[in-house]
Amino acid sequence: MLRNCLVIAVEGTHASGKTTLTHALAAYYRERGVHVTAVPEPARNSPFIEEIVVHGKGSFDLETEVDLFAAQLSSQLRTARGHTMVIADKTIANVLAYAWLVLPGGPDGPHGPVLQAIETFCRAWSYVYDAVFYCCDRFDQQQVGDPYRSQVLDMQPAADRVVRSTCASVGQRVYDIPPNMSTSQRVDWIAEQLTALGLDPTTR
């Protein structure tokens, strides 16, 4: 929780329906009188990512990943200031997970100390998320006109494993959304879980 703002996150690998679900959840609770908004993934607005993906200059590097991490954290903090509930498109641990995947060397590589420091922060910060729901489905990634997703087409199975393991390593509990649900079914299921957890925002 951030300043008495309920913080819910939707996790999962890319092309698992996170963004669609965050907006559907926000609409669901907005219709019920909750002052809520979805926090978008900042990667698509990153000048670092635009340079790499759109203009084909350079590759994923430490500066890119640190900027994405900071942007993900900042966007959630700033949005929480003006709402009673925010629904985040992934946690900051997700950004760390992809950094482990795209940067060379892993924990023993040249960027290991920085990523380990970020992991320590994620562990200390995990309490902020009141509930994290994991999208288990993997949808078709071949979306015409989406250059961002095309950069990580071959990473989906690995990303799924690393995102899960990273969430576990920082103590981030996740609730798996049952597979093969429609978006509306996912929304109803999450609403039921929040009620069961004592986190129903309509009663706050």
Can you put this structure into words, describing what you see?
The protein is α/β, with parallel strands linked by helices and 204 residues long. The protein has a single domain (6-203), classed as Rossmann fold (3-Layer(aba) Sandwich), CATH 3.40.50. The chain has helices at residues 18-30, 47-54, 62-80, 92-102, 112-125, 147-150, 156-169, 183-196; strands spanning 6-11, 36-39, 85-89, 131-135, 175-177. It has a 5-stranded parallel sheet with strand order 2-3-1-4-5, sandwiched between helices. α3 runs antiparallel to α4. The radius of gyration is 17 Å and the shape is globular.
Largest sheet report: 5 strands, parallel
The percent range for strand residues is: 5-15%
> Residue share in helices?
40-55%
CATH domain topology: Rossmann fold
Q: Distance between the terminal alpha carbons, to the nearest Å?
A: 13 Å
Corresponding CATH architecture: 3-Layer(aba) Sandwich
CATH superfamily: P-loop containing nucleotide triphosphate hydrolases
Structural class: alpha/beta
Describe the strand arrangement of the main beta sheet, using strand numbers. Answer: 2-3-1-4-5
Mean pLDDT: 86
Q: Which residues form runs of ≥5 with pLDDT under 50?
A: none
Q: Just give the CATH class.
A: Alpha Beta
* Computed Rg: 17 Å
Q: Total number of β-strand segments?
A: 5
Give the overall silhouette. Answer: globular
Q: Provide the domain count.
A: 1
Number of helices: 8
Element order: H for helix, E for strand: EHEHHEHHEHHEH
